[in-house]
Structure formats: structure tokens, C-alpha cells
């Protein structure tokens, strides 16, 4: 029950908490016992993506750039020896982002890079140790070749993995109030010596104005916890955001050619793009620098940079 306040709004009914009416907030806090409620553990997981080229056995063949993801091999239980996203537990005296940056530095040696909060994962049984809620972050690194990875904490090794997704099956059902789309995909991660995989099943339901999206994991090989699900979600978000934000420029150096920028868009979207149409699409996003890229045996290409007026749109 509530009462009308003198200002016309609703005043709280203090009869619901009669023991708190005659004490101050400070007095209340002095007697408050946080142990009255169960508290789940909180972790952070980082998805660090980059575009990089693997060395080719045939030195005459140019290496094709690929989307790659940073993983760490777990050095302790649970999932001993399996690969996971860099991450760890959040302490009581730090923010989520501070925890993400600390864990990233401890387990991989990476520091001072941009992190974007992605999603919060809270399935009850996602961690065999205890009830764990995880906040995931996505970061894009320009040149991973200059980074020195170092394993630490509960990680025994850090490595870049090539990321591939294959659509195995898709079903659509349209009904009076909306539609249901089911997809079965295979996630494949390789680093030259090991191949990891997982089956991810998605179900998107649209009923009236309500949209729901559900992810489940099938067979998983070598990927710890529910991290295959998190990786899938990050890939979908990355592909979506590249269409309407400046996120692709986080994978580019300060100046770049339009050909290189188009290649990044193609790698992330998984689609071949027509050069003329792509350049019209990103015309407002870039400005010419007046400089040219030197390339032996080829005509020099103009160099561009991100238009500051379109940054972070």
C-alpha cells in the first residue's frame, strides 16, 4: 500500500518496515548482515579479437589475413588442460572493468586496450565449482604480432586461434503471431597444432512484440565452461555492429587503404563485397590523409583515417 505525498506523488508505506522508521540509514547499515542472503561469485571473461596472417609454408604464397581469438590453456581444475577465454574472479574492491583489465594483464600480458562490455551470463550450472555469474567483454587488437603473450595465474599457455563458423542446418516456422528460427552451427577454433570445436544451437522466437533468443551447446571438444556459447554470441555481435558502427576501425592502424578496410569487413561478415558499393557505403566514415601507401610492384594506394565526426556512432 502507498499514500499520497504532499507533492502529489506516492509516498512509501512505512508500515511494511516498522522497525526502520525510527532509525537512520547509518544505524541500519551498522546492523545490516550481508550473510543473510546467498551471494554468487562474479567473474569476467575477455574476448580479444584480431586480424592476423599465419606464416605460410610456401614462402611465395601471400598469407591471407584471418579473424583470430585469444585463448588461454587452463593450468588447473576444473577443465584442466582445456582452452578458455582469459578471465577470473572479481574482488570485492574493484569494478568489473578493472577486474577485466587486471585478469587480461595477468594471464596474457596485454594491457591498455579498449574493452567493450558484451553480455552477462548467469546459467545456474555454468561452472562446476559454485554459482558463478560472468560478465563478458570484447576487445579488438590492431596488430597482435607486436604483443608478447605470457601465461600466468591459472593459465599455462596463451595462443591465438583462427575462428570459423559453419552453418549446419536452419529451420524457419512462420505462425500467426510471428516466427521461430532455429539454427545449428559448428564453431571451429584452430591454432596450427590443435583444433577445438563445439556445436551451438540457437532458437530465435518472435511472437507479437516479444523477441527471445536462446542458445544451447551440443558436443564440445576442448573448450572449457560455456565459453563456446560466449564466443558464438560475440561473433554474432561483431558481425552486427560492423554494419552500423565504427567497430571495424579498431582493427585498423591509424591510417589504412580502403582495400585493407574492405578486407576486414569481408573477414568479419563472411561475405565478398563489391569495391564500388563498399566505398560508397563508407565514404562518410573516412577522410583522405594526402599520403600514399608504398607497395613494391603496385601502384601506390591512397591512405585514409577514420572521420572523427563519425567516431563511436
Protein architecture, described:
- By secondary structure, this protein is an alpha+beta fold.
- Helices cover 17% and strands 39% of the residues.
- The protein is built from 5 helices and 14 strands.
- It has helices at residues 25-31, 96-108, 227-241, 258-269, 275-281; strands at residues 3-4, 10-11, 41-53, 65-74, 83-84, 87-89, 116-121, 132-141, 155-175, 178-190, 195-207, 210-221, 286-293, 301-306.
- The strands form 3 sheets. Strands 3, 4, 5, 6, 7, 8, 9, 10, 11 and 12 form a 10-stranded mixed beta sheet that branches.
- The model has no long low-confidence stretch (mean pLDDT 86).
Entry keywords:
single chain; 313 residues; alpha+beta; ten-stranded mixed sheet; two-stranded antiparallel sheet; 14 strands; 39% strand
Helix content: 10-25%
How would you classify the quaternary structure? single chain
Rg estimate, integer Å:
24 Å
Largest sheet: 10 strands, mixed
The poorly predicted ranges are none
Following the backbone from N to C, one meets helices and strands in this order, namely EEHEEEEHEEEEEEHHHEE
Our count of helices gives: 5
Fraction in beta strands: 35-45%
Q: Average the pLDDT over all residues and give the rounded result.
A: 86
Shape: globular
Terminal-residue CA separation: 45 Å
Give me the count of strands. Answer: 14
Q: Report the structural category.
A: alpha+beta
